[in-house]
Amino acid sequence: MLASFGLMNIVGTFQAYLTTHQLANESPSTVGWIFSIYVFLAFGCGLQIGPIFDRKGSKWLVLAGTVCLVVGIVGVSESTKFWHFILTFSILGGVGTSLIFTPAVGAIAHFFSRRRGAATGIAATGGSFGGIIFPLALEALFPKVGFAWSVRLLALIFLVLLIIANLLIRTRLPPKVGGNVWPDFRIFGDVTFALTTAGVFFIEWGLFVPLSFISSYALANGVNTTFSYQLLAILNAGSVFGRAVPGYVADRLGRFNTMIATVALCLISSLGIWLNVGGNVAGLCVFAVLFGFASGSNISLTPVCVGQLCEPEVFGRWYGNMYTIVSIGCLTGIPIAGEILARNEGDYWGLIVFTGLSYAAGLICFTTARILKVGWKLTAIY
Fold this sequence. Notes:
Layout: H1 4-8, H2 11-18, H3 28-44, H4 46-56, H5 59-77, H6 82-111, H7 116-168, H8 191-220, H9 225-253, H10 255-277, H11 281-300, H12 302-307, H13 315-343, H14 349-374
């Protein structure tokens, strides 16, 4: 999680750097495609990886992911053109991330049931810690050793972490009898699951916009370069608690209940704070911590909510099918935000409203799914 989700949580650092250096002649929307394709593949490849995990286990998937991710990041260090970054960061990095985190999340469902929310939340904090450590390290290294060596050092750290992952990630349950490795879209006939998928689609549509643009937003509003890069680390610091605490609460008050509350908080922080904060440093810190805390559950509670709807033996298939749909939102969200930014001539208000509306749609979907299961009773634990 520290390597795979850690990389996903620092796309904003690469976005801000590339738009002012190697790809300074490209529009924000164009550069955004690098990270959109990366996230699309990181989640979308789960369509096939999930069923393979259910049928074959985690060993070879994690090993293949290690090779793809490390080679991809080393390739990023040598990249200078747009298509270079598509091949290295987007394709190799995206496929590698999916091969690693899908089995990592799936393995948790094999070992935990009653405390699955807390276990998943604790594991997911690895990505948040990566989102704190890696931006600060890169921000310090860029001026000292340059982009290429900074990214090579990042690849070395990933290699060490992933060697440990290969040794530790294991499955417990035997393959489901009669199972196969092919996707099965019939599971979307479950209306609650379909609504949950739609809800995750919308919140992921909005999630990666602040992660990608928070640093460039601060730079555009006159905040100094050092603090602008550090904002992403502050956001991820809030996400550490946002992944661990809601998971613990979800096991006691209900997984869908907790997801609804945190999605509502994402909506409030986006439209209530970010929309009006400008270059106010204190306000940016408040938004980064609050949104980081609330959005942390977007990643950690999603597999827990899916696990509540299916048996552990088929979790990989359900999770993979969901994220195949969700990955379309991941693919389009950042470029849409970049295009909105370009059409507003560098003014970020439209991009922020897009984020807020995405979370509003996600909130409606999750609330409807809960109502279908337990009705309008506010005290029902679900």
